[in-house]
Amino acid sequence: MPWVRASLRGQTVYARADAAGALVAEEGGGVEIRYKPHDGRRYKARADNLTVVDPKVLPDDTCGPAEAVVKARAGEQPEGGAAAPAPAGRAQRKAPARGESGAAPVPEGAVIVYADGACSGNPGPAGLGVVIIDGGRRIERSEFLGTATNNIAELTAILRSLEEVDEPGRPIVIHTDSQYSIGVLQKGWKAKANTELIASLRGALAARPRARLVYVPGHAGVLLNERADALAREAVRERASRRTVYPGSG
């Protein structure tokens, strides 16, 4: 399983991640971490105490074999035990709410999605881009939408993501930089426009109870989100749509 560099209470650590660079929590909610890649010691940290600082995915052999350390530091979770308390006077950081930014634990076997929309003018020529990581398979999709608004492009990208997953019981984590989409789909915002599309999306999400949206900052160097953005812009530029499957890549 790959690694990413993350921050734990101001200190950079190596943390277990999936092929898309999202943190992976083990049973019990802890994420395996290393302070040094080859010191022979491994720890667990609560996912809400970790923040990914470098989206580059590192290979499994970045860190060598290690033994579990039972005694944990503040913010870590000892093997087989509860999380260690924070030092006196330091408040525990609240976990990011569903649909907000921050490192979120990813269920084992989840489909990882990055979805984005683009628009030249608002409204104007619009397109969407989607990157899907499903195990070892990677799917890239771009679609030209004709004349539309940016919000329609963002929402349609999420809908296309859901359409790519045939099994309604699969966990799906969809990363989007659209606060509007998260608001109308997960936070109960009242939709004043795009009501038909939003109703379709709400129905699609209701049929997939293990699907959730996670906010990711746009144009912040998150590699797969940047790729989704490039696919959306490509669709607008070329006025064309395409779907490409890369078997065995991640």
From TrEMBL:
Q: Which UniProt keywords apply?
A: Endonuclease, Hydrolase, Magnesium, Metal-binding, Nuclease
Into which EC class is this enzyme placed?
Answer: hydrolase
Query: At the top level of its lineage, which domain of life is listed?
Result: Bacteria
Reactions listed under catalytic activity: Endonucleolytic cleavage to 5'-phosphomonoester
User: Is Amino-acid biosynthesis included in the keywords of this UniProt record?
Assistant: no
Record-level Gene Ontology MF annotations: metal ion binding; nucleic acid binding; RNA-DNA hybrid ribonuclease activity
Q: Name one GO biological process term.
A: DNA replication, removal of RNA primer
- Bias type Low complexity, positions: 75-90
Q: Which CDD domains match?
A: RNase_HI_prokaryote_like (cd09278)
Cofactor(s) this protein requires: Mg(2+)
Please state every residue range assigned to the domain named RNase H type-1.
Answer: 107-237
Family as reported in the entry's similarity comment: Belongs to the RNase H family.
Q: Which PANTHER family match?
A: RIBONUCLEASE H1
Q: How does it assemble?
A: Monomer.
Q: What name goes with this protein?
A: ribonuclease H
Task: State the organism of origin.
Answer: Sorangium cellulosum (strain So ce56) (Polyangium cellulosum (strain So ce56))
Taxonomy of the source species: Bacteria, Pseudomonadati, Myxococcota, Polyangia, Polyangiales
What is the name of the gene encoding this protein? rnhA
